[in-house]
Amino acid sequence: MKKLLQFMGFCLLLITFSLSTYAQKVYTVDYKSDADVKVYVVDYKSDADLVVYKCSYKSDASGNKGLWYFVDYKSDADKKIYFVDYKSDADLKIYFSTYKSDATWKNNSKIHLMY
């Protein structure tokens, strides 16, 4: 019985770890050189590579589909981003949506940037 409980605990830990590695926890850095991805916020959804929804809870930000949770500490982030002032400086153009259902990739060639 003890071994079964240990095995179940290990499986639960493994599942939790695997889910957290695909979460889109992001941290905004102060310097471009510290960023994994340089981001520009566009005014129109049609101009975006990715439509992003800002989640209120870390558990809601799962998968690489535009559900982002902004963390308070760099060490907690999956990706460090820097918001640039010019579209030409960006690796990724995003649009912030007020609806969770809008979150999606518009340009699949950029999807690798957030893995």
Protein described:
- With 115 residues, the protein is an alpha/beta fold.
- The protein has one domain (2-114).
- It has 1 helix and 7 strands.
- It has one helix spanning 2-21, and strands spanning 25-28, 37-41, 50-54, 67-70, 79-83, 92-97, 104-105.
- The protein has a 6-stranded parallel beta barrel with strand order 1-4-3-6-2-5.
- The longest helix is centred in the first third of the chain and has 20 residues, at 2-21.
Which keywords apply here?
single chain, 115 residues, alpha/beta, 6-stranded parallel barrel, 1 helix, 7 strands, 17% helix
Total number of domains: 1
Average pLDDT score: 87
> What fraction, in percent, of the residue positions are helical?
10-25%
Distance between the amino and carboxyl termini? 39 Å
How much of the polypeptide forms β-strand, as a percent range?
A: 25-35%
Q: Give me the strand/helix succession.
A: HEEEEEEE
Count up the helices.
Answer: 1
Overall radius of gyration? 16 Å
**Spatial order of strands in the largest sheet:** 1-4-3-6-2-5
Low-confidence stretches: 12-23
Structural class: alpha/beta
User: What summary fits the major beta sheet?
Assistant: 6 strands, parallel, barrel
Shape: globular
**How many β-strand runs?**
7
